[in-house]
Amino acid sequence: MNLFRRSPKTEDAAEGASPVLLSLLALVVLAFVYWLIGQASGSVNSALLPDRDLPTGSSHIVDANARILERELDSGWAPSAHIMPLWVRIDLPAFQQGLLDVVTKSTQELNHVFRVGSEASAGDDLKEAANDIDRPANGWSVFSANSTGDRLTDAVKRLDRVNAQLAAGNFPSVSGRIDLIASQINDYVILLSDEHTRLETIAASGHALLGARAPFYHAQGVLTGVCLELKAERDDFKPVLEMQSSLNVFDQAIEKSCETLGVKPFPVVNGGGYSFLGGNVKLLSEHIGTVLYNLGALQNALAAAPASRAGTAR
């Protein structure tokens, strides 16, 4: 009797297990390939926008909104793309959604300004652009007209069309509207306050890793958006800021909001620095608190003295 000979039952079990193991292995390999495609098909881009010489009369804010959307579309649009490889990234969808929150607020404020009194006709493209941007994000749809990518592409075209009309002198310039810049800064304070509260909650939870990555990158997206918008607003509103004696305070707000550009920790944890295994969540929360302090000082500076320029509003 051969004690080492497998029984027919054992051989049948081994043969039955092989297809199952192979199937599981194939799924693991496919998941890994899917993840690799996601890693290679998009990236978080928090760099400053290239300087552009715009025609006289056009708006740097309108142009910045268009270029931000254009860059993200070129980078690979990711929010809520549940059947696309970019969805597994976590960092990119969260970052882009945070960035989009800022662009949405900025475009809505521009639309409001252009739809007041005699300027109402100038807001048609801005209104449609704001509607295109301020809709739930998705990465794919059976109906291509409803996809986020198509809607944002349309928004870019509309924003560029508005700037062409401004450059042609068909619409009044927004550069003297102190009410616009005050409203936009108020929007940034609200958005960043929400991010600060969310990060503080995560930092206090005691979890080192779970649930930290998406909120961190969403906050980074909001910070990046605020940085890019403030730089554009400085170009549009420099004369008003100088008359308000607010230019230095404005520059300090820009400096602080842009300070974390390019910060991409892996992994995102609670601890003590922006480096590997550092305290990314808590440190970013504290930094947002500093940005909020600077924006508060800017709000006070803008409200401290009336602008004497004709056509400005308080």
How do the helices and strands line up, and which of them pair or pack?
Layout: H1 8-40, H2 60-75, H3 91-114, H4 124-133, H5 148-167, H6 178-203, H7 213-243, H8 247-257, H9 280-304
Helix pairs in contact: 2-3, 2-5, 2-7, 3-4, 3-6, 3-7, 4-5, 6-7, 6-9, 7-8, 7-9, 8-9
Our count of helices gives: 9
Please identify the structural class as seen in this structure: mainly alpha
- Mean pLDDT rating: 78
Q: What's the helix-strand series? A: HHHHHHHHH
Shape: globular
How big a fraction of the residues is strand? under 5%
Poorly predicted regions = 140-145, 272-277, 307-314
Biggest sheet descriptor: none
How many domains? The number is 1
From the alpha-carbon coordinates, what is the Rg to the nearest angstrom? 25 Å
Head-to-tail CA distance between termini: 101 Å
